[in-house]
Each structure stands twice: as structure tokens, then as C-alpha cells.
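Field notebook, page 369. I keep forgetting to write these up properly, so this time I am using the form the group agreed on. The chain and the ligand, protoporphyrin IX containing FE, are recorded exactly as supplied. Prediction of the bound pose follows.
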Amino acid sequence: MSKLPGSTGISLLGDKSLEFYRDPITFCERRIEKHGSRIFQARLLNKSTSFVCSVQGMKELLCDKSSVFLKDPTDVMTYMYGDNIVTTNGEEASLLRLSLMNLFTGKCLASSSDYINSVCERSLKDLSSSAEPQSVYPIFKRLGSELVLGLFLNVKAEETPEVFEEITQLCTLHWHGIISAPVNIKVPLWSSGFSTALEAKDKLMEIIKEKLELEQEGFVGCLRSLPLPDASCASQHLLLFISALIPKALASLLTSFTLALCGPGQEEVREQARQDPTYLDQVLLEVQRLWPPFIGGRRIANQDTTLEGYHIPKDSAAMYISHSVHRDPEVFHQPDEFKPERWSGSLCFTLCHQWKDSQMLPPPQGMLG
Ligand code: HEM
């Protein structure tokens, strides 16, 4: 069995977290080139970590060996969001997945489309008529917040603007806790970002629990009626669904979409995307491929194992890097080029079946017709 390319150095001194989080894309590109391999090791968060930048490696990590590579229970996400599907493993995760999938089908989903259309029309109408240049990211982030809170919590900005603003601010404070050091210090007139975030979380949980008690209709009503393992499960999941992370991810993707399609050179693509919904789906997939909003995900090996034939020791971490995986030349021809039509052929079919067979993750959006 071969040793992973790269080195993890000695504890603390060999740590590369600062370099990685400053610029994850360059960090991986440099090492992929240096080692001639899309999987390599380095020290991250003071732990030996394999960086997975290939489609094959990611498939092994998340699908084939999902019982070996487990979510990290000491992750700050777990502390800030509590137990939910993102922090659960194995059979427990499969059962939760089965239950939660009901929220995204049938009557639950049907009731969402009118709301989505009306928020989009209202939020975006001024964009096309504006003569001045606009900064689109904040506009899309606001749109994302309106969608998330309206759909998942039945709090609509137009109907109850103060409640909407209060919850949006609490979600932002809670999110800042994830990206600040996990130190819970509170002294008069000053409190650490982390303790402020925990206070915001408590307030959000109160609002969520009240909603779950009172609302009969919509997403909250559907969630209430699901068979879930314990009483706190629904509220923990609502906390995840209204996380500030989701409007940020949506705003990032819509901004990338705008940049990819703007300018005089893209008139044809814009026209085709307007006319043909299938082509628009392909454009959206290509935007998600080239500019994924999240860095990736991290797991811990619960036994000695392998990834792409390389030895991975027990208790080491493995991290998939979405940006690099999505540009793996083994799977994507001319990986750095924006080519929406790549999603129309057999690649889409093959990946679609791999996702279906693995039954581990939801299929990428738009791939299952
Ligand atoms: C642009 C928006 C989004 C992006 C980029 C995104 C990205 C991701 C990624 C990368 C993961 C895998 C994390 C891992 O396990 O390593 C994930 C999992 C998950 N996301 Fe999202 N997500 C988005 C929107 C949403 C929304 C709107 C919801 C729910 C309301 C949601 C709910 C979930 C859930 C429940 C999981 C766990 C799935 C499972 O383990 O079966 N996500 N998401």
C-alpha cells in the first residue's frame, strides 16, 4: 500500500491551517501540481489530514466508505447546531434522511412555488430596470434570507418585517459563532463572539419551538408531522435549515451565475437560457461545478483504510475540496472552461446513476429528470 504524497510535519509547527483557510484553492492547486496527485496529505487543525481533490476519492470517502469515514463529533458545527442529519452517521442518518425527504416532495414542495416566484419577482424587478451598476451579492443574500425564513419558518418579510429582521440578525450572530474561536467568555461590557452566538442560538431555539407549537400549515406543519427520533429533532433541524449559511451559499451561486452570463460576449448563452429550461438547468449545474460556495467537508477515519489505494491511518482526517473535485480532468474535459452543454450527454447519465446507486447523498440538483 503506498504512502500518501506530502507530509504532515510535526504537531503545531507543521500546521498549515492558516495557509489553507487564507486561500484554499491556491493551497490545493500548488500541492496537486507539486505532488502530481489529486490526493495528498498536510496538517490541518493540527491533525494529519488527507486532502481529496478527485471525483474517485470523493466517491470513496462519501459513498463507498461512508461507514469508515465519520463526521467529527468535536466539530464546532456540532456544538453550534446540535445533533442533526449533518452531524449524524450510519443507520441513524439513513432513517433521518428517509423522514426528511418527505419535506421536499408532494404537497410540501407544491405549496412553495408561489411564494418563491413572488419573492423573486419583487426582489429582482428593480435589477433589470436600473441604469446604475448594482452590487448583486447583498441583493441575492436578502433574497436568500426571505426565501429561507418564508419557506422554512413561515416568517415573511412583507407581512412581519420586524420579526423578519430580528431573526435574520440572530441567524447572522449565530453564524459568526461558527467562524470565531470556540471560547465562551463573558465579562461586563464585552462578550466573545462565541458566547454572543450561543445567546443568539438560545433565542432562535425559543422562536423555533414556539413556531413548532403553533403552526399547523406549510413546512413547519409538515415537519411537525414527520416520524422523528425525539422531541428536539424537529427544532434542531429547523435551526439548520434557517442557518445564515444558506442565503450566503445561494447569493454566492447567483452572483457567479450573473458574472458567468453577463457582458456582450454571452448574449447567445443568455438567450438560450431564457428560451430553454433544460439548458438553464445545465447552466446552473455548470455554475455549481465551477464555483461551489462551500469549501467541502471533513470526516475522521474510524479504522486504518485506503483512499485511491493510499494508506489512511485510523483517527486521521480526510477533507474533500469541492472546487478541486469539480475540476478533476479525469471526469471533466477542459475542466476550467464554462461549458453548460457538458451536462447534456453521457456524463450526466453516468453520474446520475452513480448517485442513485450510492444512495448516500441527494442527487445533484437538476440531474434526475
Ligand atoms: C446553495 C445552497 C446549498 C449548498 C451549496 C449546500 C451544500 C451542502 C453540502 C456540501 C453538503 C454536504 C456536507 C457534508 O456532509 O460534507 C450538504 C448537506 C446537507 N444540506 Fe445543503 N446546501 C445548500 C442548501 C441547503 C438547503 C436549502 C437545505 C435545507 C433546507 C440543506 C440541507 C442539507 C442537509 C439536510 C444536508 C445533509 C444531507 C445528508 O447527509 O443526507 N442544504 N449541503
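OBSERVATIONS:
- The first helix runs from residue 17 to 22.
- The pocket of protoporphyrin IX containing FE is lined by residues 85-86, 93, 97, 241, 246, 249-250, 253, 293-294, 297, 361 (CB under 6 Å).
FOLLOW-UP: compare against the apo run.
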